Amino acid sequence: MLVKLFDGAEVKEGEELLLREAEQLVAYDLQLNLLETYASGKLTSAERAVFRVFFENSPRIGEGRRGASSCKLLGPGGKEGEGELDEHQREAVERILGLQEGELLLAVGPPGTGKTRVIARAALELAMRGEKVLVASHTNRAVDNVVELLPIDITLRIGRPEKVHENVRPYMLSYKARQALGEQLREIEEIGKLKDERRRLREWLDTLRDESIGANFLGLNTT
Q1: Are 96 and 138 contained in the same domain?
Q2: Element of type H or E holding 60
Q3: pLDDT, tens digit, 9 for 90 and up, residues 62-109
Q4: Which of 56, 89, 94, 163 could form a disulfide with 85 if both were Cys (CB 3.0 to 4.6 A apart)?
């Protein structure tokens, strides 16, 4: 939970504080500020160096030619749901599909406007063309939301399992490997457990042997 107090606001002990649920837009504002800074050309030498890393190939930010797309809604697992993308979402997908080499398309919109569905639909259309698509974001949940709308057989989720939503873990390589290997993997795991048990038994026998040697040295009867 994020609690933000206005400047000068004070909360005393025992005082009730009214909380309201709100969308976290800090990252959204940062992105807009970054784009405005880039567009203004007023960059420091450090900022200019960073932008060169991401824009070293001089991409063009354009509208893109509209390409063909079915533009159907995607449900969990990439299954086509009921209805279609609305006019603006459909146009965004089609312009993504029409981008040329070195071009970028900026799709800006507040929460709830369907950016996730646009990304998922465009990613699926590009994959069906034979393209390789990387979906990245500043939050794990944003990536999970897209991945959850894509077919599991062509999608791979990379990340730490504890950071990935439980609904998306079947998309991870470790889960897929476990499913594919099946009984063979279980046998390998069983062998590993047996090796651990043998190691513990050896340590236990060594301890008993040392205790027996020590008792005999002291002239004690261990029988």
Answers
A1: yes
A2: strand 60-61
A3: 555 555 566 677 877 878 776 788 888 888 888 888 888 777 788 888
A4: 89
